[in-house]
């Protein structure tokens, strides 16, 4: 009974988010972007440096003060996206990275924060796991950046640390065997994930 009510509630919420943004499109005025509904009525006045269209999940990524942020149809700030390839981070395995107070975490397609921003850097999820590090930093290397220093660990999609953040490097993850090849004190080791 409760499952049916929950499912109907989720379908209604998803449908109402889509209905709020169906027919909404971005427009430019005096070099700034805003959004209009399908009748041409301005629903979000031009204020953003760039704008992507609203997704089926009812959110849009826009540039404000040189940062990609996620907003809802009421122009509410939801989060700051991690900048990847000159735009907001891509969804990988239903999650993408966000930035908060200099730390990284993960959000879902509705820009809801799913994994708290606790890491100096996080790689996208792959096969159910993400590499994370603390004490590391991004250093410019030509037009790109690379991660240097710090200690590395592994996170699962529930946000649980399955390998402590204490290794010099993580060279390989074997999701089937729930193990990883790591570098510690200059040695290569195979360790089990929790």
UniProtKB/TrEMBL annotation:
InterPro entries: WG_beta_rep
Keyword list, A-Z: Signal
Secretion signal, residue range per the UniProt entry: 1-19
The keyword Nuclease belongs to this UniProt entry's keyword annotation: no
Keyword Signal in annotation: yes
Name of the molecule in the record: WG repeat-containing protein
Source species of the chain: Leptospira kemamanensis
């Amino acid at each position: 009974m409760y499952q049916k009510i929950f499912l109907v509630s989720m379908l209604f919420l998803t449908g109402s988010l889509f209905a709020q943004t169906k027919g909404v499109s971005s427009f430019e005025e005096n070099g700034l972007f805003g959004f209009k509904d399908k009748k041409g009525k301005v629903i979000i006045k031009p204020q953003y440096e760039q704008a992507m269209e609203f997704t089926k999940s009812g959110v849009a990524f826009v540039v404000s003060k040189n940062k990609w942020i996620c907003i809802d149809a009421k122009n509410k700030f939801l989060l700051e996206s991690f900048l990847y390839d000159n735009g907001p981070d891509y969804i990988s395995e239903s999650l993408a990275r966000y930035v908060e107070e200099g730390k990284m975490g993960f959000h879902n397609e509705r820009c809801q924060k799913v994994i708290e921003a606790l890491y100096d850097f996080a790689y996208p999820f792959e096969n159910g796991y993400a590499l994370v590090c603390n004490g590391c930093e991004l250093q410019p290397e030509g037009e790109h950046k690379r991660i240097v220093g710090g200690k590395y660990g592994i996170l699962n999609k529930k946000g649980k640390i399955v390998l402590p953040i204490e290794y010099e490097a993580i060279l390989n993850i074997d999701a089937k065997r729930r193990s990883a090849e790591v570098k510690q004190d200059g040695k290569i080791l195979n360790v089990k994930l929790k």
